[in-house]
């Protein structure tokens, strides 16, 4: 349950068709002028790789984080040209490097389709049948919309099943890299400083969207603030927070604390140790694996912080108190009691089922056992052949017609695949599977007496799936082609697919379906109790957050809201100027020449309500001008997945002034500075 009313704090990840206008008026005396929200919504961009961004010029220039663009930077890099490590700047349009498989989405419209989805549920349906009916209705709605509009169309589940909204998106699939700084400046401080503050990172990256071979001309883009943010100023964040569980019941959070999070963390720790060791094999091995490593380290640190929040007895007690208060109010009304009282108990029962399915679901369906890009491709091809033969409404969600173009963009990507790294990853994950689930019958069926290393070698070395034309040929041949294929990775995907589908279906029927039905009841109870002042949990869809630029107290010390470029050099010196606290030569050259204005603000913190997925979100002022770029939260913010607290939790941003000063004085990107600021 929500810890308190969003009207009394800067809490909330608000959907754009239900913004907290009364709170903004009462708390900040701010009334958005006509068109303000539409302009911000239309300027915001979602990265399909996971993250946010925004249009910042009339010529399709898009700003995001270096770590959001890192997947593309790694795929564009080679042994001789490491853009991820060394940075990149295109001096002309012709030099802008095309991303191999990046899709960007801009939200065009929102339509409430709750009534239509719920109408598909017939009287007498149990939870599993009801969930199947919902999925079928959602698929039909998405296809109708896509056929009618040509836009990407997704039915989004809000309030864990309380509402269903159709989101339509304009897609950009011709996206090109324009600028990225060196990794050492984008991730200055490395893993030790991740989720910490003060910070001194230039975590920024610029792309450009193209249409018909020319730079896109978006109708809306955000103008740059040369003045940046001020202490105490109201700011807004438009981005795509990935997932929160604030509306989850106490029983659901207990399951996460005691079951799901420990299993996930063990996996992350194990994979991190493997990647650290693999990177020691040499410079090229480190280059190939480092994006995976930093992604895993980020996930591990975030989950450790989140688990710490769940293990905080006072936090869980507040969640339980809020839930019990709502249940008491329901129990006092006989009509509401009859409708809603059992919902919490049914969800609790579903958590017990989830616990029994956790490991087989994680290893088989989520792929913990098969850490290989080639296996991911093989599974998509195997399932694509099966799912395409079915009516659209009966398919697995990710194979519906509404998402087919996006799926094929990833499937037929020409991003590099490194055989030696593939073998090592797969061997490690197979060994981990055998260790954690030694008695599962599929383990021996897959290994067939071989060591994990020998099996991985056979699967990878014999596969042709690294070749895009081969993938396209198999996809075109459908079920017949898959059945006749002698590709060992295809055979592996086929061998485990029935079991993976079975555990997925069991979870959908006995966990997801139960939760959808009963969270919908709890959502109705919440609406009746609080009205529309309840915001939905994050779903990687566009949300508006707000807050003030504000420092905080930690360990008896005052942490100021801003850091400066001078502070970056001081921080490096305090750590011996050694990795990961070694600023690039370009920074020292700009400093030594006197070109760099050291007093320029570099990072700042605010009370805006953000989580993972918000990375790359623009931070704007009341005039919708860019004053910053979200790239992190402090360690105290990691509990925000489960509940909001603005006492010390902070969102961390790159200051617009720091970005512009770096582009001007360190990287000499006159073309980019002129495009952003007209200078």
From TrEMBL:
Belongs to the peptidase S46 family. It comes from the Bacteria. This is Dipeptidyl-peptidase. One of its GO terms (molecular function) is serine-type aminopeptidase activity. Keywords: Aminopeptidase, Hydrolase, Protease, Serine protease, Signal. One of its GO terms (biological process) is peptide catabolic process. Catalyzes the removal of dipeptides from the N-terminus of oligopeptides. The keyword Iron does not apply. It comes from Aquisphaera giovannonii. InterPro entries: Pep_S46, Peptidase_S1_PA, Peptidase_S1_PA_chymotrypsin. Coiled coil: none annotated. It is an enzyme of class 3 (hydrolase).
């Amino acid at each position: 349950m929500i810890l308190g009313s969003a009207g009394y704090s800067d809490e909330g990840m608000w959907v754009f068709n239900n913004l907290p206008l009364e709170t903004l008026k009462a708390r900040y005396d701010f009334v958005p002028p006509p068109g303000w929200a539409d302009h911000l919504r239309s300027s915001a961009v979602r990265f399909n790789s996971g993250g946010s961004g925004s249009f910042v010029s009339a010529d399709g220039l898009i700003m995001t984080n270096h770590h959001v663009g890192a997947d593309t930077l790694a795929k564009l890099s080679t042994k001789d040209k490491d853009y991820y490590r060394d940075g990149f700047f295109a001096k002309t349009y012709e030099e802008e490097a095309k991303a191999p498989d990046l899709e960007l989405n801009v939200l065009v419209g929102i339509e409430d389709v709750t009534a239509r989805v719920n109408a598909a549920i017939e009287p007498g349906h149990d939870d599993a049948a009801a969930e199947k009916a919902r999925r079928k209705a959602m698929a039909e709605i998405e296809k109708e919309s896509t056929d009618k509009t040509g836009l990407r169309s997704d039915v989004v589940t809000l309030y864990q099943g309380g509402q269903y909204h159709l989101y339509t998106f304009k897609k950009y699939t011709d996206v090109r890299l324009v600028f990225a700084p060196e990794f050492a400046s984008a991730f200055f401080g490395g893993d030790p400083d991740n989720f910490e503050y003060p910070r001194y990172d230039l975590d920024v990256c610029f792309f450009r969207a193209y249409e018909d071979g020319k730079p896109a001309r978006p109708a809306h883009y955000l103008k740059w603030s040369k003045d940046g943010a001020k202490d105490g100023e109201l700011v807004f964040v438009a981005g795509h927070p990935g997932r929160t569980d604030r509306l989850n019941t106490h029983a659901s959070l207990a399951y996460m604390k005691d079951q799901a999070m420990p299993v996930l963390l063990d996996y992350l720790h194990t994979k991190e140790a493997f990647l650290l060791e693999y990177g020691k094999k040499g410079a090229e091995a480190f280059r190939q694996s480092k994006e995976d490593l930093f992604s895993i380290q980020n996930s591990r640190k975030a989950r450790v912080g989140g688990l710490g929040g769940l293990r905080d007895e006072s936090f869980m007690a507040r969640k339980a108190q809020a839930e019990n208060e709502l249940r008491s109010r329901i129990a006092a009304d006989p009509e509401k009691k009859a409708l809603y009282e059992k919902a919490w108990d049914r969800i609790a029962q579903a958590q017990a089922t989830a616990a029994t399915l956790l490991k087989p679901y994680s290893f088989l369906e989520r792929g913990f056992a098969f850490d290989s890009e080639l296996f991911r491709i093989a599974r998509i091809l195997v399932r694509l052949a099966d799912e395409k033969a079915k009516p659209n409404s009966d398919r697995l969600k990710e194979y519906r017609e509404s998402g087919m173009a996006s799926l094929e963009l990833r499937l037929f990507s020409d991003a590099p695949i490194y055989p030696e790294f593939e073998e090592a990853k797969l061997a490690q994950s197979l060994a981990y599977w055998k260790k954690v689930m030694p008695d599962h019958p599929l383990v021996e069926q897959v290994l067939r007496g071989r060591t994990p290393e020998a099996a991985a070698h056979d699967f990878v070395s014999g596969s042709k799936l690294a070749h895009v034309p081969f993938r396209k040929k198999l996809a075109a041949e459908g079920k017949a082609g898959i059945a006749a294929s002698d590709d060992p990775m295809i055979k592996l995907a086929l061998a485990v697919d029935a079991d993976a589908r079975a555990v997925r279906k069991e979870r959908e029927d006995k966990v997801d379906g139960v939760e959808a039905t009963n969270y919908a009841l709890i959502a109705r109870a919440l609406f009746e109790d609080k009205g529309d002042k309840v915001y939905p949990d994050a779903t990687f869809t566009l949300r508006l957050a707000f807050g003030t630029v504000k420092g905080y107290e930690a360990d008896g010390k005052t942490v100021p809201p801003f850091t400066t470029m001078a502070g970056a050099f001081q921080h490096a010196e305090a750590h011996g100027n050694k990795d990961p606290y070694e600023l690039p030569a370009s920074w020292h050259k700009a400093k030594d020449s006197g070109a760099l204005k050291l007093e320029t603000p570099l990072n700042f913190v605010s009370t805006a309500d953000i989580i993972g997925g918000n990375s790359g979100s623009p931070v704007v002022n009341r005039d919708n001008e860019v004053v910053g770029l979200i790239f992190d939260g402090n360690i105290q913010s990691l509990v925000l997945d489960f509940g909001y607290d603005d006492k010390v939790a902070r969102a961390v941003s790159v200051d617009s002034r720091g970005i512009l000063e770096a582009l001007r004085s360190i990287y000499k990107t006159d073309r980019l500075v002129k495009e952003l600021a007209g200078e």
